[in-house]
Write a structure and sequence with these properties.
By secondary structure, this protein is mostly beta strands. It is built from 2 helices and 16 strands. The strands form 2 sheets. Strands 1, 2, 3, 4, 5, 6, 7, 8, 9, 10, 13, 14, 15 and 16 form a 14-stranded mixed sheet that branches. The radius of gyration is 16 Å and the shape is globular.
Length: 211
């Protein structure tokens, strides 16, 4: 059990290379055998110990050559350039799974599957997300350009709405499902087109998701 208490409340956009719905959400193998993803969280309220994190944004580029649980993953953590040194340290500790009960959050679980975490990036993060509308825009200059939008019915063209509820999940309680496109630069080159995206309101602590 960690001695440090932390909380993040905010909105999340995650976009990966799986088919809509993402088999990983159901403990199945990824659609294409590997996992490539980008993600961002807009922190509406948060703290790590006495350090406030309100109003900051974090993002990440992720890549695994096979299913996540088989390891050998890589990550590029990205932190809002507006963060103070104390806030940067706090956010990187959360993102790296430190100060977290083992198995309690996706940050901590994923951290056990990395063979390489690249140097953190401190940059301007342009992030807009409408969870209910299943719309997002994520731009980190020289690193990420991504967008999310609703799935559309292939016959009528109307927006299709679907949700995933994970009562015992380690990331979110309920996520809206959509689709996305992304291109990244740097040491992890990810190119995604018309594949799974999820949009969620997050409330997580060092002990896990608050349901």
């Amino acid at each position: 059990m960690t001695d440090v208490q932390w909380t993040l409340k905010g909105r999340e956009f995650v976009h990966c290379n799986c088919a809509y719905g993402c088999p990983c959400q159901f403990n199945a193998l990824p659609t294409n055998g590997d996992c490539r993803a980008v993600a961002a969280i807009d922190i509406e309220e948060g703290h790590h110990g006495d350090t406030r994190l309100d109003g900051l944004t974090i993002a990440v580029i992720l890549s695994w050559p096979g299913p996540i649980h088989e390891g050998r993953g890589q990550a590029v953590p990205i932190v809002d350039e507006r963060a103070t040194p104390e806030q940067r340290d706090a956010l990187l500790r959360i993102m790296s799974g430190e100060d977290t009960v083992p198995g309690a959050t996706f940050f901590q679980v994923f951290s056990t599957t990395y063979e390489k975490v690249h140097d953190p990036v401190f940059a301007r993060i342009e992030f807009e997300v409408d969870v209910d509308g299943r719309v997002a825009r994520l731009v980190v200059p020289d690193w990420i350009e991504a967008r999310g939008e609703p799935i559309r019915n292939p016959v009528s063209g109307e927006e299709h709405r679907a949700r995933i509820n994970l009562p015992d999940g380690f990331e979110y309680d309920t996520a809206e499902i959509g689709r996305g496109w992304a291109e990244t630069q740097g040491p992890l080159r990810v190119s995604l087109a018309d594949s799974h995206a999820q949009f969620a309101h997050l409330h997580i602590t060092e002990s896990g998701v608050v349901h």
